[in-house]
Amino acid sequence: MGKNLIDYIMNNSTYQLEFKIFFRNKAVWSGILILLISGFAGLYFGKTFIEKQEAVIGKANALQQEKTQHNIDLHSEDLGLLLFYNKFSIANMPSPWAAFANGQRDINPYLMSVSILGLEGQMYDTDLNNPTTLLLGNMDLAFVIIFLFPLVIIAFSYNIVSAEQESGIWGLVKSQSGLPLSIILRKFSIRLITVFATLLILMAAAVVYLQLAVDRHFMMVLMVVSFYLLFWFALSFWVVSRNKSSSFNAVSLIACWVVLNIIGPAVLNVWLTKKYPIPEAMETVIHQREGNHEKWDKEKHVTMDKFFEHYPQFKKYPFPSELTFSWYWYYAMQQMGDDEAAESAGHMMKKLEERQGFSSISALLFPGIQTQLGLNELAGSDLQSHLNFLKALKAYHEKLRLSFYPVIFTNGTAKDIDWKKIKAEHHVNAVESGKVVLNLFVVAIFSLLLAMAGFYNFRKKLHTF
Amino acid sequence: MNPILIIAARTWKNAFQNRATLALTLILGLALCLATYIGWQNFSAQNAQRLKYKEIVREQWLAKPDKHPHRMAHYGYLAFRNKHELSFFDFGIESFAGVSIFLEAHKQNTVNFSEAGFSNGMLRFGEMSVAMVLQLLVPLLIFFMGYSSISAERETGTLKILLCQGISWRQLMAGKTLGIIALSFSLFIPVILLTIVLWAALSNWQVSADATLRLLLLILGYAMYFVICSGIAVLVSAFHQTSKAALTTLLVLWVFFMIVMPRITQAVGASVYPAPSKIEFGAAIESDLQKQGDSHNPDDPHYAKFKADILKKYKVDDVKKLPFNYGGTVMAEGERISAEIYNRHQKELIGTFGKQNSFAVAASYFNPFLAIKNLSMALTAADFKTYTDFQDQAEAYRYELAQHMNQLQIDHISNEKPGEKDKPLSISRSNWASQPDFNYQFKTIGWVIDQQLMTILSLLCWFILVITGIAVSSKWVKTL
User: How far, in Å, CA of B51 to CA of B34, rounded?
Assistant: First the structure.
């Protein structure tokens, strides 16, 4: 069928004429130009943003080695003290697509440096951020696609029928062609081809500029974006089919855009905040701080019993209970902070999952949110990838602890550790695309329903125009 | 009767005869009521939560048993950023700024747990607040109502008739603008009254003079903003041959001013003035610390001299013979130096952020939306400057707490170190109450105006520009 369509387009002179008329309109060129310029700006800002993060990650290892050496020089005899100060870094590596959709990578820290003290007291530390920049958001290509493309689609198609009716040539057009619906479809297809050609130019630019591979992942992104744009075409088609004036169409389409991309999400956000408050976050901090510090005022065995319960393998290292202070006790107390905060931290994570569930379900009604979340997911820049990063951080921290604890507990010194082996780590996110398929399906259904309603309207009304 | 008023009244009446306008106005009115309610719910729930934990933190602090003051300095304090009572009106950066900060000796922590950190990205689309409706949606309504104000008269040919009947261009423009302004005010005034009553009622009629002043200025600012938007709508309509073209221009302006331009200006600001990353920031502080004196380094020259000076001053040959706790003195010195260095770097960082934001302030001379957005955030204490003020106050509190504990150590802890198996030294728990609770004090309206002079000026410029535009536009517009 595709080949037939292309043949049809190539051989049909009316089609070429229609294209000519369409492009004679200066507004069309400005629409395309706006998309291209803002698209390139989005690519530039998106890439600059990720490049800055990559540069920082690149420095992390050298900086860690340098600081570690400094700490070894100062505290070579006191390993417990050395590790009290020394920090170890792990980075959440941006995927190549992160420059395409920056997602939450500006809000969530991408590089965490932690000591082997209690992790719960460190893992929620944020980056140094300008909250105003966070509020206004990043300018990436995903933004251009989600917010600006629909507006251009609206601008291209809101007056497809009404303009000719208002200028009085509709009757003439209709009388010269047997099938008014085919005229309308022709007009729509020209706009569709133009918008998708613009999209493909930008996607091609993204492939070259961001060095993306044209693979299954690329096709997924392209599908998500295409379905989103098709939805807007279907919506425009339906509004146009209702046979109202140009101004009415423009106003109602803009109103749809405002409701779907601004008001709807804005209401959902406040609803979400109210429905799923997260007091567990503050509870976690309080439990961590209390769980750790109150142990100073308790008998040592209170801490040590629980510690050995958690790590039976360390029982074999004799605990110097006669000493007022030992690093052995100190690190066991730190562990208690984590252990006692574990429950509320678990609740917090569960709340976050509930929030994610709520937003993915409610997003089904809002193609804009859906597309944004889908792109963030495919770009590995969503909340889930940050939560995965936190899990990786936890594993990294545990690995460090387990390797250092025996040396600390046997009063070892800095010489007993092979520091060269300890490097800043990189966490690479495995990208899942489970939700994306469902999203595609839902957007497709919406588009189909709107298109069908449009066809129905046109069939019913065309003869009465 | 003045012809301006007749035209204004006619415009007003005509608009409400249009059912779509009426419906849109009603929907927006409802949205505003809903936003007021949601905003208040959000404010009171969040503040109640923060207050609850604030009280727990205080209780736990006071309940600590006898111990060494330095243990207390490390136990530290948790401070929560409370919301201003007017933040129900405008959420500003609230959701993107952290809520709690852990304050401890020797270490400056970040303000953690912002709402944005708990969001999977939906928050990026915005939040429903009164300010959002007034800033984004009311202008859209004004544009919908005003796009055809002059151009429709031109299209139907009534423009010529009007001008022939002795109505001047200036009167016509003024009348139309006044009509549109009246339309927007007929939505704005009842909602604002409702907001004020609701706010006062929900605050149990206990409103501060400062908050009232802030709210009054806010109302004035928004009123000016609507006048500006109405003026723009009528001017655009006057300069276009057809209503359709006028509508297109207005919609493009709306999208560009409210959706595209804020992001671009901020993105440009952030790339022209890049801020250091956290590890670079930390490394710079550490390197300065090592230059000036590192209390953790046993061979540090600064502390060698510090020790020698003290020994000389008290004419003793060993720190153990000093009449006060020497360890506490060293820590106090260390805290002083490290806080000073940190504050210097922090000030520089905030300065960089300020420069990034200055692009949006400068852009408000080109974009009235940015002007009202910045002003509204500042007046509702949900802006960047209030946030950094919180950080400053929290750091000042942290420093006082650390130094207070150091002083307790200096005064009450023996200079004689206990043996490694002896009971640790401690002081009475009655001392803990002498450390006051952390209470953030909001700045007063005078400070806000002082900080926002450029923004206020930009709004005034726009106001004057639009009024002048209405008055002198007749020179350029064509009747046909």
Answer: 25
